[in-house]
Structure formats: C-alpha cells, structure tokens
Specification:
The protein is an alpha+beta fold. The protein has one domain (about 5-165): Aminohydrolase, N-terminal nucleophile (Ntn) domain (Glutamine Phosphoribosylpyrophosphate, subunit 1, domain 1, 4-Layer Sandwich), CATH 3.60.20.10. Helices cover about 15% and strands about 35% of the residues. It has helices spanning about 50-60, 70-85; strands at about 5-10, 10-20, 20-25, 25-30, 35-40, 40-45, 105-110, 110-115, 120-125, 145-150, 155-165. Strand 5 (about 35-40) and strand 6 form a beta hairpin.
C-alpha cells in the first residue's frame, strides 16, 4: 500500500510519500521517489514505478497557465503523459491506461489535481484512493518519508527527507 499526500498552505504546495515497495508479502524500502518536482509542477504517484520513471525522465511539460487549469491539464498535459507512456510501452489494458491502481497527483499554482488510471482529471476534493486495504504487516517506523514543497513566491522546489516516527 502506498501513501501519497498533498496539501497547500497559502501559496505553497506540499507533497509527501512513503518510500516502501511491496512484492506479495514482502515490504522493502526503495530509493525511487514517489513525489518529485518536474519544472513548475509537483507530482506524486501510486502504483507502477515505471510510470513514475517515465514522468521523471521522459516528460517535458509546458509552463502552466494562470487560469483554466482543468482545461490545460485535459488538453495539454494528459496528451503528453499519454504519448510518453505509449512510447515507452507501459500502457495498461483497456480503461486502466496507467495500469491498475496507478494514479497521479499533480500540483501547480497552489492547486492540486488527480489524474486517474483512465487519465480522467479531477480537482483535489474529488480525489479518491485507488485501493482501500489494510497492510498485512504494520509499516516500520524507521522508513523514510520523502516530501517536496514548492512555493510560487520562491519559484523553487525543495526536497526534504524525514523519518516518520508516528504509529499507525
């Protein structure tokens, strides 16, 4: 189970994610971040690490507009994402274009949006988890949590790594 969180404070976007990966009953820590900056955007993803790698290393996005964010995402960003996923041979079957249980959070200009497995764009209030389950083993308290923040005032991204000491 992956945890990706996104929030806004004033004009700052904050994204955070765990660094665990699972393979059946095994849970291990990976260095591949589930949240990252891409130009003026912050991305977070669940599901396929390959989709995250394609986003980070193959996609270049235009500067986001001041207005009509949903229209821009649907008409400009989604086709770029779709083309990169197809070109790299990572498209899932049928309706699950990004693959089953893979979803994206994207933030820019103090707004957060979700892009679902079928590439549907929804505002943050309508974002839903792709999987509702309880892990068979509780997460270890020493797994690092990677967080990014981006402020439109500072125009820069700041990576932060912390360790979650809370209990679940």
């Amino acid at each position: 189970m992956t945890v990706v969180l996104a929030d806004t404070q004033d004009e700052t976007l904050i994204f955070a994610a765990d660094s665990a990966a699972s393979n059946g009953d095994e849970i291990y820590t990976v260095d591949t971040p589930k949240v990252f900056a891409l130009g003026s955007y912050l991305f977070g993803y669940t599901g396929s690490y390959r989709i995250g790698q394609i986003l980070r290393h193959y996609v270049e996005l235009p500067e986001p507009p001041e207005r009509e964010a949903e229209r821009f995402l649907v008409r400009e960003v989604v086709p770029i994402l779709r083309a990169a996923v197809l070109e790299q041979g990572a498209a899932g079957p049928g309706q699950d274009f990004l693959g089953e249980k893979t979803a994206l959070l994207v933030g820019f200009r103090s707004r957060i949006w979700c892009i679902g497995t079928d590439l549907t764009v929804t505002p943050e209030a309508a974002c839903a988890p792709t999987e509702r389950s309880t892990p068979s083993t509780p997460p270890a308290s020493d797994r690092p949590v990677v967080a990014w923040s981006w402020s439109s005032k500072r125009r820069r991204s700041t990576p932060r790594t912390s360790v979650d000491r809370g209990s679940s």
